[in-house]
Amino acid sequence: MCVFRKFHVTLAHENRTMTYNPIQLESLLGREPIVINPEFIHALHEDLKGKTILITGAAGSIGSEIVRQVARFNPGRLLLCDVAETPLYTLGLEMDEMFPAIPVELIICDVRNVFRMEKIFKKYSPQHVYHAAAYKHVPMMEAHPSEAALMNVFGTKNIVDLSVRYQVQVFVMISTDKAVNPVNVMGASKRIAEIYVQSLHEKLQDTSIIGTRIITTRFGNVLGSNGSVISRFEEQIRKGGPVTVTHPDIIRYFMTIPEACRLVLEAANMGKGGEIFVFDMGEPVKIVDLAQNVIRLSGYTPGRDVKIVFTGLRPGEKLYEEMMFDDEQMQSTCNRKIRMAYIRPYNHEEVSAELCSLYKYATEMEDAQVVKQMKRMVPEFVHE
User: Fold this and answer.
1) Residue 242 falls inside a structural domain
2) Is the dihedral of CA 66, 72, 74, 78 positive or negative?
3) Looking at the whole model, is its pTM more than 0.90?
4) 185-206 and 367-377 are packed helices; what angle lies between their axes, rounded to 10 degrees?
5) Could you list the active site residues?
6) Which of 69, 130, 159, 180 has the smallest C-beta neighbourhood within 10 Å, fewest atoms?
């Protein structure tokens, strides 16, 4: 699936209007697009057909694409949960047009509201849950650590706890490479969510309860997502520049949204429970090279038509991201683009006790204490 962008622009310094060339996001990756392993197409159809599927953060970039891809496998009912009213309504109109035969429930709800979420689980009995609801912008979460904890940690805790309680077959958490050796609050909050999810799986194993398959997927940046660097570059080019990059050496792993969601579905199908699936995103891309390519693909010459300026690293930003910890043991799967990471087990009771302290500080908006508690729970978390 190719994603194109086309727009008009007035260059401020030349006062002229031109039409951009369409930008094919895949061309920015420098590699072949990732597709679902053909042998899994039938398996996914069998796994999802007729099922009631809950997707949190459904109106977001990743959540909405998971909705579109799941819908192709004929689920019995889709429960689309988000707090963003207008994007959720727009997604509902799209589903009515593209998949009129699939019953869709649009649910305005905050995953932090465990009482409201429990009513949804009790009423609809979802069989699969894809948990994509999260705060993701690093600078915003640096300024609001308590909100990061309440959404990314305790929102996740609510959904996975309810999934186990109401005997959901598969729970899938969408995580990020920023959770690995985190240097920012957002990454630390996602890492703590990973730890809790892993500890709950361990508890289920210890009690010999055969129930929910708890799976985590971890990948890097997605091209074209809401608020992504590409959108930022496009907006800056529309204004005639300059295009801003924080540092000349900063690099990131990238996927397109459809690629990431295809691998999420495939990993959820192959997972037995307890795994963290790490996606092979190819070689990292220098952001300055990405900016130059976007300028060129838009029909202009970097430096001459549109300048690039360096603004300095933002709070919580590091030069490169990592996909796994040093102590994570990686195993290959039948899809060479997906690997499994098995990490040290976590005791559920101990993790839950630590979360009690984190919850107290977060609900009282004690941001400094929240960060301190995050460091206690994630020793790798290095934060100024």
Assistant:
1) no
2) positive
3) no
4) 50
5) 178
6) 69
Alpha-carbon gap, residue 161 to 352, rounded angstroms = 12
Chain-centre distance for alpha carbon 252: 15
> Which residue range(s) make up the domain with 192?
32-225+257-281+330-377
d(Cα 41, Cα 43) in Å, to the nearest integer?
5
CA 335 remoteness from chain centre? 20
Residue 109 lies in a domain: yes
Is residue 63 within 8 Å of residue 82, measured between CB atoms?
yes
pLDDT in tens, 293-322: 888 888 888 888 899 999 888 776 777 665
Place of tokens 């995050």: 374
19 has which bridge partners?
8
* First vs last C-alpha separation in the chain: 41
CATH of the domain at 172: 3.40.50.720
Angle at 258 between CA 256 and CA 263, to 5 degrees: 100
Give the C-alpha separation, 212 to 284, whole Å: 34
Helix spans in the chain (H) = 38-48, 61-71, 85-98, 114-124, 138-143, 145-148, 156-165, 185-206, 229-238, 257-270, 287-297, 348-363, 367-377
Structural contact between residues 250 and 313, judged by C-beta atoms closer than 8 angstroms: yes
CA atoms of 80 and 92, how far apart (whole Å): 9
DSSP character at residue 14: T
Q: In what order do the strands lie in the sheet with 276-279?
A: 104-108, 77-82, 52-56, 128-131, 170-176, 213-219, 276-279, 338-342, 329-332
Could you count the other beta carbons within 10 Å of the beta carbon of residue 15? 8
φ/ψ (deg, to 5) at 100? -65, -20
Q: Which residue has the tokens 């969408």?
A: 174
**DSSP letters for 328-354:** PEEEE-SSTTEEEEE-----HHHHHHH
Q: Is residue 348 part of a domain?
A: yes
Number of structural domains the chain divides into = 1
- More reliable by pLDDT, 228 or 78: 78
With respect to residue 368, please indicate whether it lies within any of the assigned structural domains: yes
Instruction: Say what the pLDDT of residue 15 is.
Output: 44
